[in-house]
Structure formats: structure tokens, C-alpha cells
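hey so u asked for the seq, here:
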Amino acid sequence: MRKLIYGMNLTLDGYIAAPGDDIGWSVPSDELFQFWSDQLQATDLTLYGRKLWQTMSSYWPTGDQQPNATPAEVEFARRWRDMSKVVFSSTIDKVDWNTRLVTGDAVAEITRLKAEDGGPMDIGGATLAGAAMRAGLIDEYMLATAPVLVGGGTPFFTALDNWVNLNLVETRTLPGGVVLTRYETRR
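ran it, C-alpha cells below
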């Protein structure tokens, strides 16, 4: 059975995007960027909701060809392009870059993918992750909490029907006051 991990950058008040889908507050330090790049390398499959897919696919397919791309960005872009991805959406009809589109029941498909043999899966996008949270499918949460308050926007956590008890796995402070925390779901 695969492990499902939900992790993103978020504000201290719990948002992954400020109003208007503004993520300008979330520029990562080199160390945080490397953490996410290493996480990507350790991931067998990434699951995206439509909005996050559109954000990622608007830049990373050619991120390594940008004139001021750092070596870390070049590495991340190549990893991103090469890795297997699944996008869940009923409003788009085409995806590229080693990606498969699922238009049906996301929870059923995520459940099926978790039951397969293979390495860890990451899930990204608040709506998709929210559905997986409510279904009890997320095994680990990774929060890179930035010291900024935005007052509203897209929350990292969704409304839940039941409590989810967690065990703290790791805490570390990164440059810029970002606190990285990892929690495993207590089953």
C-alpha cells in the first residue's frame, strides 16, 4: 500500500493562497526549495487538482530553460517533467508532461492508487486534498509555515466531519523564519 502525503507552503494563519489566488508571499528560500525538490525526487506519483496543475504546468515544463534558472530550479524542472502525475478535473480535457487525466470520482481513484504497490504519492491542491482528508486517505501532512498573515484566501485544511489525530514526526526552522513540520496520521 502506498503512502499519501499532503504538503504545501502556507501562511501562519493557514492559507496556501491569499485572496485572488495570490501566492506572492510564498517565495521559498534555497533550503526550502531544496526540501521540496528532494520530496519530489522521493515521490513515485503526484496527484493534482486542476488549479494547482495549471499553476505548476504553466512554468515547470520549461523552468530549466529560463535564462536565470538556478541549478536547483533546473533540477526541479527536470524531475517534475519526468515524474508520473495524475490530474483530477472535470473542466479540462488535455494534460501533458507524463500526466494522466481523471474526470471521475477522485476519492475512488485515490483509494485505488493507494492500494497499489509503489512508492509514496503526494497530493496537492486544496479541493482535491480536502476530499482525500474527509475520506481518511492522507497518511502524512507536511507544512512549511511562513511567518506571514494574509487574513483569508484558500485554506490548507478543509472542514472535516471527524477529528484526525496526528503524531509529530519532524520540526525544523528554515531561513526566513519558515517552520517545517511533518505529522503522520494516527491510525
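The longest strand covers residues 166-174. The chain has a mean pLDDT of 94.
lmk if thats what u needed
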